[in-house]
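REQUEST FORM: STRUCTURE PREDICTION
Request ID: SP-0412
Submitted by: Lab K.M.
Chain count: 1
Length (residues): 376
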Amino acid sequence: MNLKLLTPCLVLAGALLFSCDNDDNGTPSLQIPDTYEFTRNGQSSVFYGGQTDRLNQTSEIKAYFQKGDKKEITLDAETLLAMYENAGGDGDGNFSFTSDRQLKDKTFPPDVAFFEDLFADAEDASAAGLDAANGTAGFITRKNGATMLVDANGHEYTQTFEKGIMGSVFLHQIFNVYMTDARVGDDVENTELDGSNNYTPMEHHWDEAFGYWGVPVDFPNNTANLRFFANYSNGRDPLIGSNKMLMDAFLTGRAAIVAKNYPVKNEQREIIYKGFELVTAATAIHYLNTAKELLGEGPASLGEAFHALSEGYMFIRALRISPKKRISDANINAILNTHIGENFWELPESDLSGLDEAIDLLVDAFPELADVKDAL
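STATUS: Completed
RESULT:
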């Protein structure tokens, strides 16, 4: 493991080296590994298996939705609910693995009913088997000839589910659970190990937040097999530098926890809040730009446009989640309900100025995106 040397005079402490020197506050300074690997007594002190399970559950529920898009199955609300609740530890036989974790109990509480209603609505649309039209849920064809299932307003069920979970579970857990004072604040236990585990509670909570990102431990040098938010931080990276920003914050913060350098830990926590929110906003602009282009191509691209709009809409909706959000709820609601509008079918008949206004409101909240908004 390579280490980033910050100060001279080093003392070996587990898998990391820490400086003999102190910072201005008398707190030991630290060294930061190049990869997200931390050990104690020669064994890993990192574990986020629950997060990996929930990412896997999300992937398999998405795959179930996609079978409905292809008309291979008729979507069933009870099956979707069983997977969401992980009934029986295997989604009532619908998961390829067993786990005692679930998505439902980790969902942003106001959104649980949103997903349950989505499952019921998706079943009705799938069973009806109609062609989609304004006011009619059904199937619409994409440019490659594949079909996808949309609701009466043109929102794609698969993307509404996936991007919804990314906000309502993954971001919610990072923002409102694991990065809070209750989990990684300075008073959280960080000396005694957590039972028989090889980590302290503070270390573990930080790792669990990292687990929801979906990156490999050697990211960003390794960009294979990226999952969920990892895909989007990597996609936006050339324009906003999101990969190094977030990875450095997670690495530095975890090393600071081991060193008990809490001022540094808290600085990195703020970077993580801002970084994920910036990736979310930048990705929303990306999809609004894509939708504008596709809508301009005419009816043949309507399926693709609705796909992009469904993703962008849910990324904007996810901006509600952060307790430190830089965009107001009023502006989020204005973007969703007015500038984009709930009914996607009405957009091709407009001059698309609403999408430009939505982008402008996002840029107003995130001015660092002003110079790159057209390229996102």
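NOTES: Residues 5-21 have pLDDT under 50 and may be disordered.
Reviewed by: T.R.
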